[in-house]
Xylose isomerase-like TIM barrel domain-containing protein
Amino acid sequence: MGPRRKGEKRRKAEENLTKVDEIADTSRAEKPSEGRINDVMRGKKGRTKGRKKFIGAHVSIAGGIWKAVEASVDIGGRSFGLFLGSQRCWQRPALDPDVAVKFQEACAQHGFDSAHILPHGSYLMNCGSPKEDVFARSQVMLVDELSRCSALGLTQFNLHPGASMGSSTEECIKRIAQAINHAHQQTPAIVTVLENMSGQGSTVGGQFNELKSIIDLVRDKTRVGVCLDTCHAFAAGYDISSTGGVKSMLEEFDQVVGLNYLRAVHLNDSKGKLGCHLDRHEDIGQGQIGISAFRDIVNEPRLDNIPLILETPGRPGFEYAEQIQLLYSLCED
C-alpha cells in the first residue's frame, strides 16, 4: 500500500471517529481535537486510558493459527477471538504440535494471556439437537475443540449452546449439559463458555434463565461460564440502549446467573430493533443500540480484565482497528 492510500485510509478513519464521537454526545460543546484523535489512532502502545479493558476482535487463522496473534497485534487488540479450524467440515486434521508451539510462542512474544483469548466453536455444532446423528457429531466435535484448546495453551472456549429443532426447550437444555459434561470428562481444565443468543428460531440461551438452567446441570461449575453478546442481548429484548440499560442488564444477569460466571463480552451493535430476535451484527455506533451503550460498557468496572471482542461487519475506513480505537477513546480512565 503506497503513502497516498495509507493517508486516505487514515483520513477516512479519523472522519469516522469524529462522526461517531459527535453521535455519542451531541450536547458536548467541545468536539474531539485533531491531537486527541491522533493519540487514539496510534494504537495500544500510545494508550493512557482503558488499561483494565481488554478490547479486541475475532481474527482470521488463514495461513496458520499463529497468524491470529499477528492479526490482533496489527489492529491494536488486547484480546482476540478465533476459530480453531475450518467451519465447513465436521472432521479436521489433527493439530500439528509444532503449530501449537508456534501459537504459544507468538502469544508470549506479544503479551497475550490465555484469559484474554476466546476461541469460538464451529457453527456446525448443535449440542441441543434431538437428531441422534447431529448430537453425536456435535459431542465429538466439542471434545475435539476443547482438546485443541488444551494443546494450544488456552483456558476457555466459547460456543452457541444449541437449538431445540422441534423438541422442547427443557429437553434441549438437558442435551446441551450432557454434551458439556461428556466433554469435560474427556478433557482437562478448559472452561466451556456459553454465549447468550438472540432468540432467533429455536435457539436456546436468549434468556438468562435458560443459560442458568444449563449451568445448573453442568457438574463442574468451575468449568462453565458465559459470554454476553450485546447484539444478541438487545435482539432478545434486553434494552441496553436506554439510559442505565447496561447496568440494568448486568444486575439482572447477576441475579439470575451470577456475575462470577461472566467470562467475556462480544461487542456488536445491532441492525435489528429491540426484541427483534434477529442475529444481525452492525458496526459500533452505527446500529439500533447506539454509541452511548458502548461508552457505558467500556467504563463499566464489572467488565474489567475480561476479553471484549468485536464481531462487527466493518466498512471501508471503519474496520476492526478503527472500532477498537474508537472504543478506547470512549474510556474515561
